[in-house]
Specification:
single chain, about 300 residues, alpha/beta, TIM Barrel, 12 helices, EC 4.3.3.7, Aldolase_TIM, amino-acid biosynthesis, 4-hydroxy-tetrahydrodipicolinate synthase
Length: about 300
């Protein structure tokens, strides 16, 4: 269920800043058509921090509705306050999601014991499997492998999304957490290498705009055909790198509009549209990946 190429889905907005559910439905259909293995809705890339609780829940439930059981949907349910993360989990327990993606609490900088107790509290109320999400560059706190191992002993904590880019952790997590625990990369640049080393897949930003290639690449990787997968990976490497030339999802939303996946390149403050200075960098990555701008 949690393997292969999983998209960290963007949340499209209308020109007035409201959620664009028509475009959201189009995105879900696009990923199903392109062979994406699962959708992670309203995570970091989905601008979860700027959605209200009501919007957050509605976007997730709409993605589930649009998917119609054809593709698993994982819901971002993380928060920096444990009670808020617990609330999200309760609200989405019966929404039809396949699991929840819960990021380490940001800004608070809890201890490892605090992280353990945070995720334990979420696990106690969640009726779906939980994917831990470690992204120190965003949150200011690093979920250590030893803490992941403690959490992996809790029945419904089944996976880790590791966005550190530290490939040495793959073997460490596998040793500490066992073969059944699911390891997912959250770093597109090292995602294929992560799988080569024993990971199960990637939750990807690049997948938003190169879904077919990402699906093919990780299907090849699952069969051990890494040379063929690497050819695709190298073509996408510019995207893996330059979709982060400004804070994500700024560049990926710009590209998504350029290639006609969404109608409006709208973000919510404090995020702002990509600067003109960065456009040539991203355009070069698009060209390298074979992405074509739609004619206006």
């Amino acid at each position: 269920m949690f393997s292969g190429s999983i998209v960290a889905l963007i949340t499209p907005f209308k020109s007035d800043g409201e959620v664009d559910f028509d475009n959201l439905k189009r995105l879900v259909e696009h990923h199903i058509e392109q062979g994406t293995d699962a959708i992670a809705a309203v995570g970091t890339t989905g601008e979860s921090a700027t959605l209200t609780v009501e919007e957050h829940v509605k976007v997730v439930t709409k993605v589930v509705e649009y998917a119609e059981g054809r593709i698993p949907v994982v819901a971002g349910t993380g928060a920096n306050a444990t009670h808020e993360a617990v609330t999200f989990s309760k609200l989405l327990n019966h929404s039809g999601i396949a699991g929840c993606l819960s990021v380490t609490p940001y800004y608070n900088k809890p201890t490892q014991e605090g992280l353990y107790q945070h995720f334990k509290a979420i696990a106690e109320v969640s009726e779906v499997p939980i994917i831990l999400y470690n992204v120190p560059g965003r949150t200011g706190v690093d979920l250590q492998p030893e803490t992941v191992a403690r959490l992996a002993k809790i029945d419904n904590i089944v996976a880790l999304k590791d966005a550190t880019g530290d490939l040495d952790r793959v073997a460490k997590h596998r040793e500490l957490c066992g073969e059944e625990f699911i390891l997912l990369s959250g770093d597109d640049m090292t995602g294929l290498d992560f799988v080569k080393l024993g990971g199960n897949g990637v939750i990807s930003v690049t997948n938003n705009v190169a879904a077919g290639d990402m699906a093919t690449m990780f299907k090849l990787a699952a069969k051990g055909e890494f040379e063929e997968a690497e050819i695709i990976n190298q073509r996408l490497m510019g995207l893996h790198k330059d979709l982060f030339v400004e804070s994500s999802p700024i560049p990926v939303k710009w590209v998504a509009q350029q290639i006609g996946l969404i109608d409006n390149n709208v973000l919510r403050l404090p995020l702002t549209p990509m600067s003109e200075l960065c456009e040539p960098v991203v355009v070069k990555a698009m060209q390298q990946a074979g992405l074509q701008k739609v004619q206006s």
